[in-house]
Amino acid sequence: MKKCWDSDPLKRPTIEEIKENLDPEELREAQKKREEMIKSGIQFVEKPGLKHPKSFSYSRKLDSVIESSKITLYNSSEYNFSNASENSLTKHEAEENDDCQETID
Hints:
Elements: H1 15-21, H2 24-40, H3 63-68, H4 84-87, H5 91-104
GO molecular function: protein dimerization activity
Organism: Acaulospora morrowiae
Region (Disordered): 82-105
């Protein structure tokens, strides 16, 4: 494993060398353990939401954040990108578009 981290890429093992050192039985056992842990539903974090005093951030579920975010989808066929100067909005048009978007949100 340490060879894989060598700062000199020429000293790192090739994929063939790594493959030769892998034991198929150990890989099967490791996969079996992973699958059992997933099926058991055991939480891997002892206290989710608990923040270490020296950490800057911590992991948390983002499902609610993702669901509540509003995403505007644009279809490139609605715009003609052949000449940007011809298609650019005037300041007034841009402000009108912003006003319309605010009323939609």
